[in-house]
Amino acid sequence: MKYLLVEPKLTSVANNIALMKWARWCELNGYEYQYVRGCVKPNITPNKILMSCIFSYYSKKYEQTIDYYLKLFPNVKILVGGVFPTLSPEWFNKEKWNGGNPFFKMEKRVDIYCGLNPDIEELPPKYNVDILNEESGENNVIKFKKRTIVLYSSRGCVNKCGYCAVPRLEGDMRSFKSISHILDMAKVEIPDAESVVLYDNNFTAHKYWNNICDELIEFGLPVDIHGLHVDSFTFEMAKKFSQMTWGSQGKSSSTAYLRFSFDKMKYKDNIGRALTYYMNAELNKRVGFFLYMLFNYVDSPHDFWSRLVYTQKYSTDFNTYIMMFPQRYEPFQALEKYKFVGKKWTPELAAGLRKLSTFLHGFLTLSPNRNLFRWIGFSEEEFLDKVYKFATVKGYRLEKNEKDEPPSVDELMKSI
Predict the structure, then answer these.
(1) Residues 6+ apart with CB under 8 A from 82
(2) What are 385-409's pLDDT values in tens digits?
(3) Which of 110, 196, 390, 394 is deepest in the core (most CB within 10 A)?
(4) How far is the C-alpha of 105 from the C-alpha of 97, rounded, in Å?
C-alpha cells in the first residue's frame, strides 16, 4: 500500500501536524509513503491520497491542488480531512466540471473526514519526514529544515467561544499527563532542534499543566505556548513560567511573549489580574506580554478603541510594554479572506485597521510613554480617520507627531 500525503502550498509557520502523524502511521504499519507540499509529481504512484485542509478562505488553492492530483492519478481516491471539510462538508459535495471531467460528488473520487481521526490522534508526529516541495522541482526531495518541535499537550477547550472552531472540531478539553516521550522522540529525529512550540487551545485550563511545564523545563529548549487565557491564568502558573526559557515561535534569538487575548471588553479586569501575576513573578524579566485583539466580529470600532485605551492604561500602571496584534475575524466558512464585514464595521475600517497594523510591523506597541498615540492619533476620531485613510487613500502613510505631548491616561480613559 502506498500513500501520498498532500499539504497544499500555503504560507505557514510549521508543517501540518496531522500529515506528520499520518507519516508516522504509515511508518508503523509498514506502508510506503511520500509527503508533498503543493502541486508536484511525486516519486511514487499512490494507492490513496490523504490531504489536509485547514482554513476555508484558501478554498481556491485547495481546489487547484485537488484538481492537480485528480488529473495526475485518475484512478486514485483522495481523502480530505481537517477544519475546512469538518465545518464545510457541502463544499466538497458540490458538482464541478473541470475540462469536461466530473469529480467530487459525481465521481465520488473525493471523500472527506470530519473531526479528529482516531487512527493518528494519539501518535507523535514524524519530525524528520522528507518533503517533496513544489518549489524544489519534481525529483528534489528536501529535508525537514525546521528546527522547532511542534506538538499538542491537550486537545479541545473548556470554552465555547462563538468565533472559535475548536469546540466543533476537537470537542471537550482533553489534557495529556505527559509529553516527555514525544519530546524525546523528536530530539532523536531532530538532533539540532532549537525550540518547542505547543499549539494547545487552552493551556491554562490544562489539568496537568504543572507536570507539562516541569517536563519542558527539564527538556531545556526555549518554549512558546499558544492558547494562554487570562481568565484561567493563575499566580502559580506565573511562578512556574518564570522558571522556563521562552522563545518567540520557538526561536531563541527572537523576543519571546506570553500570548494572551483581549477579544472582549469583559476581559479587561482579567487582563489587569494577569499582568499583576506577570509582574509579581518577575516574568517581565524573561518574556514579553502579548495580546491578540479580535475585531470585526460583534464588536465595534469604538470597542476596539476602548480595549486599546485600557491596554495603554495597563502599560502605564505596570510600567511595562504590551504588544497588541489586531486579528481580523473570519467566519468559519468564508471562502475568501478579508471579505466579511461585521455589522458594526465598514469595509474601509475593517481593511484599514489591518493595513495600519501592518504599517507598524504587524503590532501596536503600548509603552509607558504612550508613544503609539504619536502615530495613531490622540483621539478616537483621529485614530479612525487614519484607519479609514489607509483603506481609501493610495500610498497613505502614518506620520509621527513629534511636537505635541500624547494625552494622559486619564484623558484617554475619558474617551471611552
Answers:
(1) 18, 52, 53, 54
(2) 999 999 999 999 999 999 999 999 9
(3) 196
(4) 10
Looking up residue 86, the CATH number of its domain turns out to be 3.40.50
Give the whole-angstrom CA distance, residue 280 versus residue 274: 10
Whether residue 135 is contained in a domain is answered as no
State the total domains in the chain: 2
> Which pTM value belongs to this model?
0.90
**Structural contact between residues 390 and 415, judged by C-beta atoms closer than 8 angstroms:** no
* Res. 92 pLDDT band, cuts 50 70 90: confident
The answer as to whether 93 is a domain residue is yes
Question: Percentage of residues in the chain with pLDDT exceeding 90?
Answer: 75
Last residue of a domain, one of 94, 113, 132: 113
* Residue 156 and residue 76 share a domain: no
* CATH number of the CATH domain containing 200: 3.80.30.20
Q: Quick one: residue 180, left, alpha or beta (phi over 0 = left, psi -120 to 50 = alpha)?
A: alpha
| Distance from C-alpha of 70 to C-alpha of 108, rounded to nearest angstrom | 11
